[in-house]
Write a structure and sequence with these properties.
Radius of gyration: 13 Å
Order of helices and strands: HEHEH
Structural class: mainly alpha
Oligomer: single chain
Distance between the termini: 35 Å
Amino acid sequence: YSDAGDGWRGGLQKIKQNHPDLPVIAVTANAMAADVELYHEEGFDGYLSKPVDVGQLNAVLAQYLTVETE
């Protein structure tokens, strides 16, 4: 969505409008504490900095993925 001409804010807004229950994780090279806070304030559900650490990716995914059993 960031290539849609309206940046990540526009992309986030579109995702949240169309899929309000879908968690959206920011994946970015911006790793300063103020950047992380900004992404959370803007509505991202999680944050990962680049380069992505596989352990951190798994931890974030585990927060939002559930296994349904019958």
